Amino acid sequence: MAALSAAAHAQQTAPTAEMLAPVNVTVTGSRIRGTDVETAQPVFSMDRAAIRATGLTDLGDIVARMPSASTPEVTPQDTLSSSNDAGGRYANLRNLGAVRTLVLVNGRRWTTSLGGLTDLSTIPVSIVERIEVLKDGASSIYGSDAIGGVVNIVTTDRFEGASADVFYGVNGHGDGAQKNGTFTWGRSTERASIILGAGYEDGDELRDSKRSLTRSGYGPRHPDAGFGMGPYGGVVDPVTGQSYVVNHPGGVVGDTSDIANYHPYDVDSNADKYSTARDMTFRAGTKLRNLFGTGRYNLSDNVALRGMAIYDVRDTRSQSAGYPLQSGSGRGDGLGIDPDNAYNPFPGYETSFFRRTVEMPRIVWARSKAMHVDAGAEGTFPWAGHTWNWDVTYAYSETRASRTTTGNIDLLNARKALGPTAVVDGQTVCANAADRAAGCVPWNILAGPGGTPAAVWDYVGSTTTARQTTRTNDVIANLTGGLFDLPAGTLRAAGGFEHRREHGRYVPDPADSAGLTTQLATDPTDGGYIANEAYLEFDVPLLAERPLARELAVNASSRYSHYTAFGGRTNNKYSLRWKPFDDLLLRATYAEGFRAPTVADLYAGSAESFESFLDPCDSAFGAAASDGAVRARCAAAGVPANYRQIDQSGAQIGSATGGQNPVAFRTGANPALKPESSITRTAGLVYSPYFIDGLDLTLDYYKVDISGVITPIVAGDILNFCYVRNDPTWCGRFVRGADGHIAALDESLANLGSLRTEGYDLGLHYRFPETRYGEFTVLSDSTYLKDYTQVSAPGAAPRHLAGYMNGVQGLYRVRSNLSLDWSWRRFGATWTTRYFSGLKDSCWSPDVECNRPTELNALTGVTGVSRKGGVAFHDLQVRWQAPWNGSVRFGVNNVFGRKGPLYYNVSSAGGGSPPYNPAFDVDRYYYIGYQQRF
Question: Which residue has the higher pLDDT, 280 or 217?
């Protein structure tokens, strides 16, 4: 049942501004058309007024505000990601991931990336009539991906006149300004309608250094933790193995060729390290431009042609700190200071070094061009005494993305610049004449910031570009109508087919792919598949207008899908709706579902990835510290008894949060993958008591079980499977060095394990009787998460994670939105409270930030839990409808400037800036918008 919107009655629009959509509509979750259909599935609806009341300008951010939605795999804070999905906005329902949430526009699939993500920012908000969210499985109707639910964006198809809308918002710290402008023009006649428009969005970046919340790697409570490799040159004595760093009093470096100017490197001190957060963007800057057009023409009373075209260009800029360059960065050939290099403090020896190139931060410019065009026809005809509806659509989607990265090191040129030197005309130059002629300039990498001339950076710096293309060709046909009449009503049916071709291609920069730069190496991707699908759906009325059975009906649907990549499968769904009396609707569903492997899952080339994890063999914080069996297995594998895991800076990890590995691991696709399978069960009620006019109460139970989960097996899990769960089949996925450190690890994909989520949704919406002071509406929507269980592999112990901070998404027990809306004449206001319950997190250490030291951490498998409290954010919007057909809105999101708890389990890949929770507000946010209709 559609929920009321918080601002649905706040503004009255001139009757001629927009024409009503057809009465005979299709409800999300069913292909059967009907008038005033109450579905057996839980559907949440947000209309245009409610969208505007959020003060948000992106559909992804708007959907994320719903309690049943959670943080997607990729967020705007994902500054460390090398994926082309970074910078987009995605929807994640039921904490099951954006890849398991199907996005439709007007009931039809939208374009997806190689990784299966649908970027909601490619859909202009200005043409959105409403958002419908089906919180139920729907693979029997729509096919793959509809496991967590369906987000259906319904666009306006009739518009009269013109409208201009401008918006400006800014954070309380004065950064992250958001500037938007849209223009829409439309004309409608009795037979035709056309809508044209353009939009522009400019979002400024936010930087980690701007606020204490993100200024350090682990937040303001631990400002001296999380430092990385420093900017001053460090060397390793080739004889003793002792590490030294050049002296730099006041930032001044002396003669780097004299070891007397060095001091021993202390990995436990920050004196020679660097806080990378000072150079990082917390949220990438984004510019988005779009053009769109829709049209409809009635050939006759029974046949209409329609079409839509949208073109978007999105530019994103993000920045991370300069590269932590060291001898190991040279990959197999190594990278060292030549024995005959003038700056070598150990002449006669090839000398290993380490030094962060802070003068040259890594900057990524990403551009994505998305195009969607669809054209079709629809109509009606009479058959067997009933009206039948048909539609046929061809849709083409294409996305072209490029990703240009600067700030990495060209390893070939760096090797030459660190090679032997000579003195020519009193100047130190590269000894090799051919290299000199090609531009080689000697590099004193040990000199520190300011000690490297621009000519050297030009020579050793690397600028590379990777490109990605995805294409979808889709043909869809549907037919629906009444078959025959039963005593309780008409038995209605729907059926149709879909033919879809998906193809994707990713071309990394040749130098990156060959490992000739410090950019993470990635192999090319090229592949696709064809899907042919057909479905049938029946809606059968059993009883009507009977005692305790004002309505009793069942709905059954089945869809067969055949993919060239893995074969065929059938998914069924059964729904029941029962009205014992007019005020109460009871409903239940049982749905089978699946998620097909994406193009990237099947065909992506292998890639390098730096991972943060906790090694169970670490003698201080790993499971070996407290579990004798784990300790024995580590010893049997040759791990030294006092082994300590080291992080990217070479320091021993200082807490149970683990650390980032100094060397890259490998991830990869698997062409033998099979689809994920799911079973969704829901049961609920809709209660609208006749004696309280304006009150609607909804309560729904849901349970989703997924098997054969497609997942990369991350480093922490692989090590735990091997040592903690004693499964030797996983021990071959990694290699340890003689000192015990992980030297290589394989994280390729597999159909592994299962996932279950279970909970309740509660909605209470009440529109008070009209008073002399205006109209008041209260809306409350809440979700309670009863269970969220992961089983990583067959036979592995389940991890019960409800109530934990898990990577980038908080598995909140309770999420709730409460809104009070007021409207009076030309004025209106909305106050909204968004509540997030507390979460469990990893302890900083056994005796610091560890209020449950004896509780087993279900996420990490290590004893010790830090339970952190909930937080509520409050938003206010005030509106005024001007007499000249204009409207003004002013608002403040996070009125009281609340900051949520910090979580050490937040992942740096996807989340971007630990320990910040990407679902929380960063600051108080002010905005103002003006719309003028003509």
Answer: 280
Longest dimension (CA), the chain: 106
Indicate the pLDDT class of residue 121, thresholds 50, 70 and 90.
confident
Q: Which residues contact 98 (CB under 8 A, 6 or more apart)?
A: 72, 73, 74, 90, 91, 92, 117, 118
* Interstrand relation of 149-155 and 101-105 (parallel, antiparallel or unpaired): parallel
Q: Identify which of 144, 792, 27, 85 has the alpha carbon closest to the alpha carbon of residue 500.
A: 144
Return the closest-CA partner of residue 129 out of 46, 64, 192, 197.
46
pLDDT band at residue 11 using 50, 70 and 90 as cut-offs:
very low
What is the secondary structure of 19-67 as a DSSP string? PPPPSSEE-TT---EESSPPPSS-EEEEEHHHHHHTT---HHHHHHTST
pTM of structure = 0.87
Q: Hey, is 510 helix, strand or coil?
A: helix
Locate 451 and state its tokens: 């000690």
What are the structure tokens assigned to 465, written together? 């570009």
DSSP annotation of 106 reads T
Q: What is the total residue count of the chain?
A: 934
Indicate if the pLDDT at residue 442 is higher than 70.
Answer: yes
Give DSSP secondary structure letters for 744-793. EEB--EEE--EEEEEEEEEEEEEEPPPBTTBEEEEEEEEEEEEEEEEE-S
- Looking at the predicted structure, is the pLDDT value of residue 404 above 80? yes
Q: Is the pLDDT assigned to residue 1 strictly greater than 70?
A: no
CA distances from 490 to 539, 542, 908 (A): 8, 10, 55
| Residue 688, token pair as written in the block | 């609208």
Q: How far apart are CA 70 and CA 55, in angstroms?
A: 19
CA-CA distance, 187 to 799, in Å (whole number)?
Answer: 57
How far, CA to CA in Å, does 63 sit from each of 81, 106, 377, 855, 876?
Answer: 23, 16, 30, 35, 18
Q: What is the DSSP letter of 283?
A: E
Q: By the 8 A CB rule, do 518 and 545 touch? A: no
Whose tokens are 């098997």? That residue is 707
Selection from 611, 620, 632, 626 nearest residue 656 by Cα: 620
